[in-house]
């Protein structure tokens, strides 16, 4: 497995609609494995294939769910590797802070569904449905947006909430 480079805003691949995957094969599984390894190195929780320069409809989610009541407790790792994911149902509304590995240092408040049902194909070519709520629902929506060439900054309704929180004070978006 390899750690992949993250494509940054301005790269045209981030704005393209990613190509549907006909069948999950060894090359797609390897890409998913490499994306999985890339996530913690990039200090993220998920990545979409266009973010590593591959315009295919593939997302990988890898984050540790923590107990808000017990900060010292070890959380459970939540992992999804989905080809051709799509949101088939969304309910409720939430507004929350988001950032993106492809737009380092920037955050903004983004409206999303509170819960979603996502369908896709797993790495064994089986159809799957995932019901997600809260933070996981936000992650799915953010990553699926990448597959359609949409960045979180496109979804920020109140541009006043868009802030640079990185190391370099002179960053412009």
CATH topology name, in short, is: Peptide Deformylase
Strands, total number: 8
Spans where pLDDT lies below 50 across 5 or more residues = none
| Total of DSSP H or I helical runs spanning 4+ residues | 3
- Which CATH class? Alpha Beta
Level of helix content? 10-25%
β-sheet strand percentage: 25-35%
Overall outline: globular
In whole angstroms, the N-to-C terminal distance is 33 Å
The largest sheet, given as strand count, sense and whether it forms a barrel, is:
5 strands, antiparallel
Order of helices and strands: HEEEEEEEHHE
Keywords:
single chain, 173 residues, alpha+beta, Peptide Deformylase, three-stranded antiparallel beta sheet, 3 helices
Q: What topology emerges from the helices and strands here?
A:
Layout: H1 26-41, E1 46-48, E2 58-65, E3 76-91, E4 94-99, E5 106-112, E6 115-121, E7 127-133, H2 134-147, H3 152-155, E8 163-164
Antiparallel strand pairs: 1-2, 2-3, 3-6, 4-5, 5-8, 6-7
Concise summary:
Helices cover 20% and strands 32% of the residues. The protein is α+β, with helices and mostly antiparallel strands.
């Amino acid at each position: 497995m390899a750690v992949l480079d993250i494509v940054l805003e301005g790269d045209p691949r981030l704005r393209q609609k990613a190509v549907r995957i006909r069948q999950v094969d060894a090359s797609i599984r390897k890409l998913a494995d490499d994306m999985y390894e890339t996530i913690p190195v990039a200090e993220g929780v998920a990545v979409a294939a266009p973010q590593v320069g591959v315009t295919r409809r593939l997302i990988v989610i890898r984050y540790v769910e923590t107990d808000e009541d017990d900060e010292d407790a070890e959380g459970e790792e939540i992992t999804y590797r989905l080809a051709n994911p799509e949101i088939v149902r969304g309910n409720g509304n939430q507004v929350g802070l988001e950032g993106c590995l492809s737009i380092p240092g920037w955050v903004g408040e983004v409206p999303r569904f509170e819960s979603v049902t996502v369908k896709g194909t797993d790495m064994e070519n089986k159809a799957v449905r995932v019901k997600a709520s809260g933070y996981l629902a936000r992650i799915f929506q953010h990553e699926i947006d990448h597959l359609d060439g949409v960045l979180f900054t496109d979804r920020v309704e109140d541009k006043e909430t868009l802030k640079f929180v990185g190391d370099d004070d002179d960053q412009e978006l």
